[in-house]
Amino acid sequence: MTTRNQDTIRVLIVEFNSDRRTALGENLRQAGYEVHIAEGEGEALLDDAHARFMDHFCHVVVLAPRLINPADPTDFSGLEASTRFAPAGIVIYTSEPNDEIAFRAGWEHMGYVRTTDPRRKLLAAIEEQARRRPFSIRWPQSDFQEHVAAALKVEPTQITGEDLRILLGQVFPKAIGVELRPLPVLDTTMLAATPIRRAMVLWAQENRLTTAYLTPKVAKIGTRERIEREVENYTNCVEGRLRQDRQARLEGHAVLWHIGAVAYTFLGASPDELQSFRHYYTKNDPASILNVLRVLFTHTCQNWYGDQSSLDGKSLYDYYNEALDLDEHIARFDQSQYRLSFPGLPDELPNPALWVLREGREMAFPELRRCISHGDLHSDNFFVDHGNMVWLIDFEQTGLTHVFRDFVELEADIKLRLVQYPPEGDLAAIAALERALLGGQSLAGMLLPSPEVSLDPNLYKAFQVISGIRHLAAIATGVNRLQEYYLALLYETLFMATQHRLRDIIKERARLSAALIVERLTRRTGLLGRGVSIPRLDTALLQQPGMQTRQMLNEQLSYLAACYRSADLQAQLHPDGPPPELAEGMSLIQQEGQRLRSFLNRFST
C-alpha cells in the first residue's frame, strides 16, 4: 500500500476509452489533483479500478456510465459499479446525453458532467464530491490514530486522522461531532492482560445541533473485512433472536477503503449505569455473578443455544480449528518434550499439544451439536447494568459453532485472566484451582472445592462462578457430557496459551491449565461416574478428646460449609430443582456435618 499525500485530492479515472482517460488524467493533474488511472477492458478494467482505489484510497472516482459494452444502451455497468468505491464521491463523466443516466446520478447524489461541458464544471463536481461536511472529533489522546493502527495491526501511516473523521462522520450521520472516551479499565496490577481483540472499542458521545440530550454509544473501529463480517453476523444471527427487552443494538456502521466502524446503542440504559462483566466480576459476590450469567445464558441467549443441529460429521477438533485456527496455534507450542515441568509444581505433566496431535483430535463423540454462539464471549464483550440486565457487543465471530463454545471461552477468560492469584506461587494457586475444577463426574453434577481452594477467597470465588457456568452450560444446551466439555475447554486453553497478544504470565497459566486438562482426560476411568462422593473425616482421628481434635473438627465443619455453599449455588441455577446427583450430594454433606457436630458436642462436654 502506498503512502498517501494527505493534502491533495486523490482522483481515480475509470473510462473504457484509453485515449480519453489519458487526456483526462493529464488535464486533472494540471489542475493539482493526484490522479490514478484504471487500465484494461470490461471486467478487467473494473477489477483494476477497484485494486487501484483500495491501494491509493481515492477520494473521488470519475466514472464512465458504460464500461462492459459501451455500445449497448442498456449497459449501466459503470453506474452499478459505483457501490464498489465507497466511501469515495462519484462523478459520472459521459459523452452522451441520457436523461436516465442523469436522473440516476442525481438520485444517488453523484456528480454528472458531460465531456462537452466546460472544464470548470468537471473540476467543480470533483471538488463538491471530495468535500466533507464539517465533523469534529474530540480524541481520547493526541496520537489516537497510532493507537488504532496498533490495535488493528496495520502500519501507522495507513490510518490518519482524516480517515477516522470521514469514517465516524458516516457512522454518526446526524452529528456535527463526536467525543471519544476509552472504556473504563481496572488497575492493571490487578489483571493479567487485555482482551484478545484486533479492534478499538470506545464510548462515543454525539454532538448534534438539535439536542444535547443524547445517550452515549459504544463505537468499534476495525479493519474493513472484520466490520463487514460483524454487520453481517448481527443481521443474520443477532437481530430479533436475543430474548431481552433491552439489548445492545447496532445503530450505524460504515466502511472506508481499509477500515470500518460500528456503533451500538443501549436502549433503556445509560452507559453511566453500565459496567463490563470484568468490572462486575471484581466487585460482586458469586451469587450475584451467577445470577447475571443465568440471565445471559438461559434467557437472553435462549434462542441461540436452544436451536441446535448436528455438526455435519465434523469432529470437535474440526470445529475449534475452524474457529480458532488450532493448527497454527498448536504449531507454536513447544513440542520438543513429551513431559513439561512448571515452577512450583513437583511433578511433570503431559505436553498438551503432543497429546492433541497424537490422540485428542481423533476423539469422537456421538451426536455432537452446534448452535449459534457469540463466539468471542470474554468478559469485556458484555456489559451489566444496575438491574443486572446483560448487554452483548462485538459480533464479529458470531455464528454456528459447537454448543459449548461460549461457556468454555468465558471459563478460560475468568480462570486465566480475571482471578487475582497470589503474587508468589502463582502457578501453584492456579494448579490448585484447576485440579478442583477437574474433579467432577458429570457436567451438571456436584462439584466441590478442595480445602486449599476453599480457604483462598479469590480461588473460592472463581471456583463457585466456574462450577456454576458448567451447570448453566448443561441447562442452556441440554448437553451433559463432561468429557466433551473438557476437550472443548482444552482447545480454548491451547489457543490462549499461544496468543501473541496475551502477556507471558497468562500464556504460562494457560499452558499449565491445558496440561492438567490432558492429565484428567488421559485418566481413562476418571470420567466415569462412581456415584456421589463427599469429604469425610476419618473417625479414627477423633478418638482422643483435646484441643487438637476440636480444632480438626471445626476446620472440617468450616470446609463442609464451604462445600455446601458452593453446591447450593449450583442447585439454585436449576429452575426445576437440582439434578438427583446434586441433591443427593447436598444431603450427604448435611449428614456429615451433623455427624461431626455430634463428635464436637461429645468432646466439648
Question: How is this structure best described in words?
Answer:
- With 605 residues, the chain is of the alpha/beta class.
- It folds into four domains: 10-130, 3-Layer(aba) Sandwich (Rossmann fold), CATH 3.40.50; 136-269, no CATH class; 276-521, Aminoglycoside 3'-phosphotransferase, Chain: A, domain 2 (Alpha-Beta Complex), CATH 3.90.1200; 539-604, no CATH class.
- The protein has a six-stranded mixed β-sheet with strand order 6-7-8-9-11-10, sandwiched between helices. The chain has a five-stranded parallel β-sheet with strand order 2-1-3-4-5, with helices on both faces. Strands 12-17-18 form a three-stranded antiparallel β-sheet.
- A hairpin with an 8-residue loop joins strand 14 (339-340) and strand 15 (349-350).
- Helix 12 (316-324) packs parallel to helix 19 (482-497).
- It is elongated, with a radius of gyration of 30 Å.
- The chain starts with 9 loop residues before the first strand and ends with a helix.
- Mean pLDDT is 87; it is low at 186-194 and 525-529.
Provide a quick synopsis of the model.
The chain has 605 residues and is of the alpha/beta class. The chain contains 22 helices and 19 strands.
Summarize model confidence as the mean pLDDT. Answer: 87
Strand content: 5-15%
Q: What summary fits the major beta sheet?
A: 6 strands, mixed
With strands numbered from the N-terminus, the spatial order across the biggest sheet is 6-7-8-9-11-10
Distance between the termini: 86 Å
Give the % helix: 40-55%
Question: What is the overall shape?
Answer: elongated
CATH architecture of the largest domain: Alpha-Beta Complex
What is the radius of gyration computed over CA atoms, rounded to a whole number of angstroms? 30 Å
CATH C-level class of the largest domain is: Alpha Beta
Total domain count:
4
Total number of helical segments?
A: 22
Number of β-strand runs: 19
| CATH fold-level assignment of the largest domain | Aminoglycoside 3'-phosphotransferase, Chain: A, domain 2
